[in-house]
């Protein structure tokens, strides 16, 4: 009875029937594997009856005796379904991925699927011994007797059937091959005499793969999946594993007193957990009762204020009704005035008529400009609960021990997608799951709607964000029903346009003597070496400098596009920008680029007057970087002070090309801030362009 839990299939919660060993080393019934692979609903539709549901993975565990009864009743039926010795039913699974009910992981069964799994014959034997010990009083009947069948006396392992004495003599005549069959006492567990390879069904397994931890045959080792794996003989593996298992069992037995102590401690923890849970329920109930009491008081006060305002307004309106009723003929004020007009004594009339005339004038004015004495709407009494509703929505168990995660802005980045990474200050009491929320910053929207994502790790990639937009991100951890406070909100901005992907072109104009590309063509490096020295050695005056150009392998025809890259801090001179296709050949033919015409040997002067027309003669639109600086080009709109045109070099730079508007912008890609923008001729196909001189390196930004 104590080992019964080890003999229960994790899928159907019944005693194992023909268990198969999965690659994760868990055991599952053969029938359960088929049901999980093909789908429970299909199995029921094909002929689902009460018997087919008994071992279904959806049926809950029943009593031990019921399991034994069902297993015994269906034992003879299973033999008729083709499970004899090495035979296997033909089954083509829908997928080679199998969700193991033991470890809850998706297991790859390989190309052969269920046919590539071993039967656990040892476990079958243990289950049969357990069944016989539990139901020793129930006899196994002969499979060949005419009704009524007799009790069997022996079972043939070769025929996989049980016989009484008479039937055994009939089906195993003396002097025939069947007389040599192996027979044992009555049983329902017919295991094959030898374990055969599931991939080579006629071959006996005689080796053990130490890499895959499974038995293999010699064909698997010669040309199969285990050709390059380390294997050992079956006898060696048997002795080694049996020795290890025996040693581990002896160790566990020797620690029996310690195990009992732990069991007692766990039992105490169970009781303590029950008590603490009841206490926590009571405290939570009291908290909600306090909150409910506060809400009830607020509700009562609000209803009382509305009722008071209603009574006051009704009183004013009623008085106004009475005043207007007095203006009717023979009623109220008008009736009284008619009676006053009947007075003939002048002095008495004047004495009374003065006050009456004032009231008549006031009533006349009120008729000319009618205004209700009180408002009928109660808009001032509308309770705004939006903020409180949001707070109540976030109401949960907060723990001071659960640390507040912090979004790492250095590791988080916005490019083709958003990569948000966070970390906890300490290592203790980390959360089981994190909730990441984000929303787009929009000044027009009054209310904020957060998008929520549950994350098991400490980073998340978010796609489908709007271009040229700012987003706020926050995260908090959850551990069971406890959650930490929200982290500090971090605002990140998306690129101004969709990300344009390309590699450095290693064919068009690429100078492999001066430039060096990495194998993936995402980085280019320029090194000052002997070619530069040999070129400048011939010159006695002036300055000889070369720019080595390289372009992207993909062009842009229209639309708006953005790409980013890193320039190494040690770089002496780098130019970045765009070049049209009709000027690429001229760009590479001008191998030497003089930094300023004033130093040309044939210019004949040092006036610098030629600098004014230098920009107009450029073949492509480039900006200069180097020595950890970003240089804004000289234009009429640029600052005249040279120092104000020099900016610190950002860690990551970006270029935004808008072919439709004919403009190109250069960005600090970390903050998505535009540093410089100018017009560009986009009449042809535009290519990303880079120029390096001396020691320099450029690395394209890796896509998220």
From TrEMBL:
Residues 63-72 have a biased composition (Basic and acidic residues). Residues 482-704 form the B30.2/SPRY domain. Residues 48-87 are annotated as: Disordered. Keywords: Coiled coil, Cytoplasm, Cytoskeleton, Metal-binding, Microtubule, Repeat, Transferase, Ubl conjugation pathway, Zinc, Zinc-finger. Residues 73-83 have a biased composition (Low complexity). Residues 263-290 form a coiled coil. It is found in: Cytoplasm, Cytoskeleton. It holds the Pfam family zf-RING_UBOX. One of its GO terms (cellular component) is microtubule. Residues 341-398 form the COS domain. SMART domains: BBC (SM00502), BBOX (SM00336), RING (SM00184). One of its GO terms (molecular function) is zinc ion binding. Residues 401-497 form the Fibronectin type-III domain. The keyword Hydrolase does not apply. GO terms for biological process: acrosome reaction; spindle organization. It comes from the Eukaryota. Residues 192-234 form the B box-type domain. Belongs to the TRIM/RBCC family. This is E3 ubiquitin-protein ligase TRIM36. It comes from Acanthisitta chloris (rifleman).
